[in-house]
Amino acid sequence: MRTTWRLLGMLTMTAPLALTAASAVAQSYPDKPIRLVVPFAPGGSNDVIGRVVAEKLGQNLGVPVVVENRPGVGGVLGSDIVAKAEPNGYTLLMGATSTMAVNPNLYTNMPFDPLKDLTSITQIASGPFLMAVPASLPVGSVQDFIALAKAKPDTLNFGSSGNGTSLHLTAELFKMMAGIDIMHVPYKGAGPALIDLISGKIHVIFSDMAALSPYMKSGQLKALAVTSAQPAPAAPGLPTIASSGVPGYEATSWYGLLGPAGMPPEIVSKLGKALADVVNAPAMRTRFFEMGIEPAAGTPQQFTELMRSEIEKWGKVVKASGAKVE
């Protein structure tokens, strides 16, 4: 009995010490540079957003936030590096729809589980894709495109930046919900797909505003709608696909900050607050608007629930499309 009480007394004394130590760590954090892993090559949207955010986040925290590009296996390689890192807040991940929601359904041997092996910190931003067609295609709306696809089955096709990419699956979701059959033509990147779209070799693409904007301004392409549930401020005048004959359709590209599982809550909170200040600053909101995205900072729980729902949603699309990567 005395041994039991002695153990309870030791535990009672140890608990406050542990809490004090954790609090001390959080108060001193950060005291050295932070590594932000972008799991893609330089130049893409993940990299651009990551670098813009890293610079301002470093200024808010008082230490450099250094972007490290670790591309490979569709973003799996870099994401796995973070999942296996020490959960001390000094190795973070730029997560996105493709890496956190699509890849778990696409790759048969994922080395980590986004919901179990990573800590959600906060969502950063989100933005829609545009549905765009060649200027020469005789359609002026989503309804026109659907009608043409149904009138001429097996004749229209769509391009993407590759099998299983966000561009591919966004179009597959449209096919499913619109009840049409258009053939997928995968390319090694969005650039080659856009070249063939302009020439009329392919008939539609779903891509981000930054990539499509120059061709829309030149009159080579025309946008029919945005893929978000609500009209996009960066694309004034364009309707949503959901309001254009495909009720319930929504597909957005989102980005967020994560770390390894087991990060101290105090550090997660400090990072979340610092990042919220960054993305909600007027200058950053303007920068995001120019890229066709909007700030979307929130709680870790909200970000986790977003990932959970998106994993389920894109799992159905991946299954229907038959896309798989070994």
Describe the structure.
The chain is α/β, with parallel strands linked by helices. It folds into two domains: about 35-125 and about 250-320, D-Maltodextrin-Binding Protein, domain 2, CATH 3.40.190.150; about 130-245, Periplasmic binding protein-like II (D-Maltodextrin-Binding Protein, domain 2). Helices cover about 45% and strands about 20% of the residues. The chain is built from twelve helices and ten strands. Helix 2 links the parallel strand 1 (about 35-40) and strand 2 (about 65-70). The chain is globular, with a radius of gyration of 22 Å.
Shape: globular
Approximately what portion of the residues adopt beta-strand conformation?
Answer: 15-25%
CATH class of the largest domain: Alpha Beta
The biggest sheet, with number of strands, parallel, antiparallel or mixed sense and barrel status, is: 10 strands, mixed
Q: With helices defined by DSSP (H or I, 4 residues minimum), what is the helix count?
A: 12
The succession of helices and strands, N to C, reads HEHEHEHHEHEHEHEHEEHHEH
What can be said about this structure in brief?
The protein is an alpha/beta fold and 326 residues long.
SSE blueprint:
Layout: H1 2-28, E1 34-38, H2 45-61, E2 65-69, H3 76-83, E3 91-96, H4 97-106, H5 114-117, E4 118-134, H6 142-151, E5 157-160, H7 166-178, E6 183-186, H8 190-199, E7 204-208, H9 209-217, E8 221-226, E9 252-260, H10 265-279, H11 282-290, E10 294-295, H12 300-321
Parallel strand pairs: 1-2, 1-3, 5-6, 5-7
Antiparallel strand pairs: 3-9, 4-7, 4-8, 4-9, 4-10
